[in-house]
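Our collaborator T.R. sent over the components below with a one-line note: 'Predict the complex.' Nothing else. No constraints on interfaces, no templates requested, no preferences about which chain binds where. So this is a plain run: every listed entity goes in together, and whatever single assembly comes back becomes the starting point for the next discussion.
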Amino acid sequence: MASLKDTKRRIQSVRNTQKITHAMKLVSAAKFSRANQAVLAARPYGVAFDRIVGRMAAGVENLEGMELLRYTEHPKKLLAAVISTDRGLCGSLNTNIFKAAVRYARENTDQGCEVHFAALGKRAAQFCRKVGFKTVLEREKVLERPGYHSAKAISDQLTALFTSGEYDSVVLIFPEFKSIMTQNPKVKQLLPVVTPEISDEEHETLNFIIEPDARSVLESMLRKHVVNTLFRALLEGGASEHGARMTAMDSATKNAKEYIRKLTLQYNRARQAAITKELIEIVSGAEAV
Amino acid sequence: MNNAMNEEMNVELVSPAKSLAKVKATKLSVPGRDGYIGILPGHAALVTELGLGELTVEGPSIQPTSFLVYGGYLEVVNDQVIVLLDAAESKADIDLARAEKALKRATERLTSKDPSVDIIRAQLAQARAHARVRFAK
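Returned assembly:
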């Protein structure tokens, strides 16, 4: 059995860890509220944009030849952009994403496709290296205050890989932010662009004047739609990261508390046993005299 | 199809980072890609691409507000106007001294005859800086 001193040392060490996890939880909570605000702030733009793109796509008669809509019936080469965090200690967030990535890769390789990866986040890059996925693009710090500009830079690269014909389809695998407790890995097609569906009554308002002309406006909109989709995925990823870390650190803190309780109990028992032992020794010593 | 009797229209200005304004307005002026466009209540349904320039929105119940915009889209349907901006700055956002410095730098780069200069990028930078300086003044 561990000595009194050892137990005391362990209690202290757990207490220190608890302080760290507690501090991390508070930091994550602050970061989370900022990230969550960013997600909410981006929503009106995203909703309005989706609607306009949907209407435009439904209104343009001839969608043939638009390079961002190039649909391949039997895609051969696929690119999956995996969004992960840079640092750990955020529960099963990354693990779930990687599981989804592996599933996606397996399903498609079974059908004879070649799947390559774009690792957005340090952990994703490490994971791809570990399991031997081929990456064509690696980025770090994508979830740290994701900006529209950085999203554009990444999406331009992904779009270029698609339009050059190198890949037939590009998907995003990212944590969809549901709440602080739940973040589900989501696979979303980025390219070819899936134009948002519009309801029937909106079809009636399709008589637009379009400047300069429908086709060129739609083409530039589609490009921006890709940027916007990625941007929103990054924002959700950011909120997910901090939310997940907050939950993970909260349960770590609770765990530490429980552990301290157990150790203290053990410590007190050992202390009591030592006292009893000493007393017995004194008593039996006195009897012997 | 539009209700021409309406005297005001709802104008919503949004950018990816935030919602900038949601107001009732009687006049809106936006920089189209090929020149400024004025929108009044009762405008026909329109979708257009925006360029670089100053956007102004006016109405009886609001202060005339203007933003410097760097491209985006505008949609008008039944007096509902949505302006999707890539980025926008208000006068307070612009640091005039910095903008002037950027303009000078961009102009220098354009006149430098250095073969490594990306002319198109420098021209865009100059146009942006120029618009910024003019807007802030």
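Summary for T.R.: The longest strand of chain A covers residues 169-177.
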